Amino acid sequence: MGRPSKKAERTEQILAAFQRCVARSGLEGSTLDQIAEEAGMQRSLVRHFAGNREELVRTLAHWVIGNSVPVWEEFKAGIPEDNPLDYLLDGLFEEKNTNPETVLVISALTFSAGNDPDLAKMLRNWINSFTQDIQTILGSIFPQAKREQVDAVAFGLVSLNFNLDALSPLNIGPEYRRAARTCAESLISTLRNASE
Amino acid sequence: MGRPSKKAERTEQILAAFQRCVARSGLEGSTLDQIAEEAGMQRSLVRHFAGNREELVRTLAHWVIGNSVPVWEEFKAGIPEDNPLDYLLDGLFEEKNTNPETVLVISALTFSAGNDPDLAKMLRNWINSFTQDIQTILGSIFPQAKREQVDAVAFGLVSLNFNLDALSPLNIGPEYRRAARTCAESLISTLRNASE
DNA sequence: TAATATATTATCAATATTGACAATTTACCC
DNA sequence: GGGTAAATTGTCAATATTGATAATATATTA
């Protein structure tokens, strides 16, 4: 009995708003009032559903990381038999497939991770698994390449992808996106040469 | 006549302290009191020498960018005739030659550049010239490589370098540094193959 | 030593931000 | 319709942060 709970829905709205705010103004630059306004509700509601600031930040970290998992899993599940490389590169570097928000929030959280060992561990694990997945993908495409080479290339792809998103507030030109794509292809070609 | 001015010295102390604070807590996460304490002086002095917050941030951007120039120029001037590549890679990726602070501050400024077109332009120019310098260096080492390839590799080196510094708050292991170095060498090897 | 320009300290007001909680309203069930 | 649990609104105090300026101390020169 009693009124039906909107906790799940409201929490989702709040975190989505928080993510947008952080991507725009950074973590410490996002006040509870801004988050509330972005979410279209009063600050009291933010507190009611998401607790105080400390809890809210912690929840955001879990939420962002948690959200990225199914998206990435779906992406991995969609890897085609033929031409998996183009699929991978399109997913990582084509503008239409890219939303800088996640990486910007991760970047903002990384800053404050310097003062929060738990958060640092969480982000390390996230980046590790992301990188390792790419290593696995590349390893299956180039089974004869050396493991060390594959790992290095995977790290390179992640770096290129992160850097592109991190620079997005500067409104850099499309030539940077092309350079990243070209660079990624060059990197992968080193695996091809090594494995043939 | 009158008491000798300490403006230059004090301003330097303030900006150096501000830089440390920003690298640790981000731009909006650094209060004037924290900056003052880090600089070992009262907030009143910070205001007296560096103006209000807006001026202080603007000054910091100019200072960080300005400071990076002579360091980089000196580095470029030291490029040896034989084995310039190892010199370049050591400079970009060896821990002993690296101080993440500058990149962390640039990263923090990049965030707020989304709301400050002037700042965005400044940072774009900075990254442009940094990237172009590396393009020039690579181009002189591999004169027969295609320009597009050289540009892509230069962007790749910058991305690897930035990413490594940006992840430093996470206390990532040395394997990431090795991966970055290995990846950079792979990238450069693509130029070598193309030019021979 | 007096004049002077600057550093340094001390302090106040204005605003921003957060934390907390009471009061009210709303939707569902019996 | 009455009871109930939760949403929603409203409000207050405590603290943090900034902006600004007066008051004082100090080092240099004439």
TrEMBL record, chains A, B:
<dbReference type="InterPro" id="IPR009057">
    <property type="entry name" value="Homeodomain-like_sf"/>
</dbReference>
<dbReference type="InterPro" id="IPR001647">
    <property type="entry name" value="HTH_TetR"/>
</dbReference>
<keyword id="KW-0238">DNA-binding</keyword>
<feature type="DNA-binding region" description="H-T-H motif">
    <location>
        <begin position="31"/>
        <end position="50"/>
    </location>
</feature>
<feature type="domain" description="HTH tetR-type">
    <location>
        <begin position="8"/>
        <end position="68"/>
    </location>
</feature>
<protein>
    <submittedName>
        <fullName>TetR/AcrR family transcriptional regulator</fullName>
    </submittedName>
</protein>
